[in-house]
Design a protein that fits this description.
Layout (H helix, E strand, L loop, with lengths): L4 E5 H5 L13 H14 L3 H7 L6 E6 L4 H16 L4 E8 L3 H9 L5 H11 L6 H16 L8 E6 L16 H8 L6 H10 L7 E6 L9 E5 L2 E6 L3 H10 L3
Parallel strand pairs: 1-2, 2-5, 3-4, 3-5
Antiparallel strand pairs: 6-7
Length: 250
C-alpha cells in the first residue's frame, strides 16, 4: 500500500471568521460562483476529514491548543473512523510509557475517569482540560458497543515522559535550563514518528494523528527566526520523520 500523508488544520475547518482582518471585496458574480460551489460541495467537518482517507493513509488533524471545539470534533470522529475501518488514533498528549494504561482503560468493563486523568496528568499536569480526557471516554464508549470478538478502537500515545518535579513555580516553565531538565535527553520527535511507522504504516493500516500544528509538518521545513532574522530550517518534526520514513517504504 502506498502511504500518502495529509495535514488538516482543525481550527480552520471548525472556526471560520476566527480572524478579524478585513477581507477583500468580491464582486457579485464571483460571490455567486463561490456560494454555488460551497453549496454544491459542502461537507461537514467530520465528513471532510473522513473523505481524505479515500486517498491518504495517515491524516494529521492538528490544533492550536486550548480550543474546545477542536476536541469536540475529534471526539465525534472516533466512531465514524471505526465505521470506515480506521481503528487507530495517535495522539500527542500522552506518554508512550503509559500505553499499557491506555489499553487497559479502553478495554475496561467500566470507565475509569481517574485513570484517564492520570494518563493526562502524567504527560502534563499543566494541561487539565476535560475535553482531552473525554477523548478516552468516547473511545471507551465505542468499544463497549462492539460485538464480542470485534477489534477494539485503539489510542496510541506518541510523546516522551517529562519529569515535572523540576518545575516548582510558574516561571520555571519559561526557563530553558529547567525545561531541559524536565525533558531530559530524549531524542526528539523521531520516536513519535516511529510509533506511527511501526504500528500503522508497517502493518498497511490507516490512522488519524492528532497533535499541535508544528508537530505535523511533513515536507514543509519550519523556519526559525529571531528579531526578524532567519536562523535555520527545522526538519525534525514528527510529520517530517513520518514522511522520510514512509518514503523509504513506498
Amino acid at each position: 500500500m502506498k502511504l500518502v500523508l495529509l495535514t488538516i488544520f482543525s481550527f480552520l475547518i471548525c472556526a471560520t471568521g476566527a480572524y478579524t482582518q478585513s477581507l477583500r471585496v468580491v464582486d457579485a458574480a464571483k460571490r455567486s460562483e463561490l456560494e454555488l460551489y460551497l453549496t454544491t460541495h459542502y461537507l461537514s467537518p467530520e465528513d471532510y476529514v473522513l473523505s481524505k482517507f479515500s486517498d491518504h493513509d495517515v491524516v494529521f488533524l492538528v490544533e492550536q491548543h486550548y480550543v474546545k471545539h477542536d476536541l469536540e470534533l475529534l471526539q465525534s470522529l472516533i466512531p465514524l473512523l471505526y465505521n470506515r475501518g480506521i481503528f487507530t488514533l495517535c495522539i500527542e498528549l500522552a506518554r508512550r510509557d503509559d500505553q499499557r494504561l491506555i489499553d487497559s482503560l479502553l478495554a475496561g468493563r467500566t470507565y475509569n475517569e481517574g485513570l484517564a486523568r492520570l494518563i493526562m496528568f502524567n504527560k502534563n499536569p499543566h494541561w487539565p482540560f476535560q475535553e482531552y480526557v473525554d477523548v478516552y471516554k468516547k473511545a471507551w464508549e465505542l468499544n463497549q458497543t462492539l460485538p464480542l470478538g470485534s477489534r477494539h478502537f485503539r489510542i496510541l500515545a506518541l510523546n516522551d515522559s517529562p519529569d515535572w518535579s523540576f518545575v516548582t513555580k510558574d516561571e520555571d516553565r519559561g526557563n530553558p535550563k529547567i525545561m531541559q531538565k524536565v525533558w531530559g535527553n530524549d531524542e526528539g520527535e523521531i520516536k513519535w514518528a516511529n510509533v506511527i511507522l511501526d504500528n500503522v504504516v508497517a502493518k498497511g493500516e490507516k490512522a488519524l494523528v492528532y497533535s499541535g500544528m508544528h508537530h505535523a509538518f511533513t515536507e514543509y521545513k519550519q523556519p526559525i527566526s529571531s528579531q526578524g532574522k532567519f536562523i535555520r530550517f527545522v526538519d525534525g518534526r514528527m510529520g517530517n520523520f513520518v514522511f522520510k520514513g514512509s518514503a523509504r517504504k513506498l
